[in-house]
Amino acid sequence: MSAWLWGGLAVTAATLSLASAVHALSWKRDPRSALGWIAACFTMPFVGPLLYVIFGVNRVRRTALQWQAAGRRFTASGAFRAASSTSPPVDSGRTEHLAPLRHLVDQLTHRVLLAGNRIVPLHGGEQAYPAMLEAIAEARHSVHLSTYIFDGDETGWRFAEALSGAAARGVDVRLLIDGLGEKYARPSARKLLERTSARIGRFLPLRHGGYINLRNHRKILVIDGEHGFTGGMNIGDRHLLGRRSARGPVADVHFRVDGPVVGDLQRVFLEDWYFATGDLGDAPGSFPRSPPQEGAPHASSTAVRMTSGGSCTGRCSARSTAPGARCRS
Question: How is the chain split into domains, by residue range?
Answer without folding.
Answer: 2-57, 77-328
